[in-house]
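Predict both folds.
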Amino acid sequence: MGRVTVRRPVLRIRDGVRSERPDTLVSEEPLEVRVGGRPLTVTMRTPGNDFDLAAGFLVSEGVVRSPDQIAGIRYCAGATAEGTNTYNIVDVVLAPGVAAPDPSLERNFYTTSSCGLCGKASLDAVRTATTWSVADDPVRCPPEVLATLPDRLRNAQKVFDTTGGLHAAGLFTADGSMLYLREDVGRHNAVDKVIGAAVRAALLPLRETVLMVSGRASFELAQKALMAGIPVLAAVSAPSSLAVDLAADNGLTLVGFLRGDSMNVYAGAQRLVTDDRQGLLAR
């Protein structure tokens, strides 16, 4: 399989002093996801947890909802000139009776590590119908619990410590216990890997959970949370306007700029309550 990190030479300049040394970088390689042998998408990702990534992507796109809808996932031959397998192609076999992906999903299927599904033709195409509603999810997540999640996420990142170049996504219970953590050069891939791990463990819908991401909260990440039945999405950086609109329209609690005990609640503030039932007001 592909390596998570690679070593490359680098010229360092510190206070005018030059030195040469190897540096550890996060790997970025293409992954082609096929369904039933037919190419569906290509994404730039960090190798590792590729089956989770493929399963999570199919959940995000509404193709599957449970592990019994996936008959199998395997690597396909993608040989180099030297004859070794690149492990950069996976094929998902759907269970009998599960409909193949809608042809409208077949865009030019290039998904970059930075912007996600930028090949979508229109906003309407992105607004995938959700399988589960999160509006009635009873989860309550006090601000003091949310405030602990960024550090818990950061402390669990192993590859970031050596590269400084990875996004992370973590799935937590309402009391702050971590269920899954995944790292990737692409924030959307990290989320798909988390969701894919959960669907392969038959945990969907992910009621009464919190999805914590290391970067910003985009429309796409809010959509992925909704497709997995996650009621709370928290990010250390800013949300986009469309992410806020999507959250408000669908009952998703959306928290941004979560740093220490400071945070902005853009939607679903009723879920952030203290023991004395005083709600946190976002300004």
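Second protein follows, with its predicted structure tokens after the sequence.
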Amino acid sequence: MATMKDIAKLACVSTSTVSHVINQSRYVSEEIAERVNRAAQELNYSPSVLARSLKTNRTKTLGMLVTTSSNPFFGEVVKGVERSCYQKGYNLILCNTEGDQERMTTSISTLLQKRVDGLILMCSSLEGEHIEIFDKYPDVPVVVMDWGPMLFASDKIQDNSLRGGYIAAKYLIECGHHEIGCITGPLNRYQAQMRYEGYKRALNEEGLEFHPSWIIESNFECDGGYEAFNRMYQKGPLPSAIFVCNDMMAMGVINAANEKGIAIPGELSLIGYDDIQIAKFMSPSLTTIHQPKYRLGQAAVETLLRKLDNSCDETQVIQLEPTLVERSSVAIQS
């Protein structure tokens, strides 16, 4: 493997000159720089990433932890993170936690020991946890996504779920629905609670009645939506519309309704949340609340890099706004 000494010998310059050209650390004339670069190319020289990281105290690598899920929402956010890292010249190490706290802390420890420049966490099952390992690495910036209260210093990127839940229920009301149910995510999770609160706010504004049998808590997965709808069905007459708090559960609801011969939207209207890519290919295509998933990932990377450049000292919350996507799963009530 060629070294800077080999390049210096071939280019007839000093080793320090080669270093300045390769690291762009000092002005070198165009003629000498061209000679050095030509020699480096002839020798197939590849700079040592490890040596450079020790010198600059940067590895140009970010770490990201996500909770494994069948929900493509996570994959679409990760795509935004990966693309942004590539555009900024950074590598990404991605770890799945499988929803396991021990695996989460082990992965964080491993990434920090590998000297990643920053961390992105998307593991909402651990909101409110104090993660002791961060105390040992106070200079490594951390960005969390879609968490509630945290017991460690970090920036936060989140969707305005309160607003999104309100938009969803308000749209159903504007379409003439007055009997509106809600299938929530796990209410011990901040974003699930906020979507539910938005739903309640819209109904309260209109003075609409809440039916306990039409409000079912579930798990944000397809099987949860399927089971939640069956539980609602067993409790008695259905509402005319249901706000399902993510698209994956809405898929399960559509499946369960089809099994019972309930036409959507003819007999039951549905609105989801997230606007995952397959939502428009469901049958019927799903009216939903769009989360800017790619932008969530992009914002996380940009926030970390601002921290690394010392252009932002205080922790901040960046909130992205949801929007309504109208498709075919909501009927207009006369």
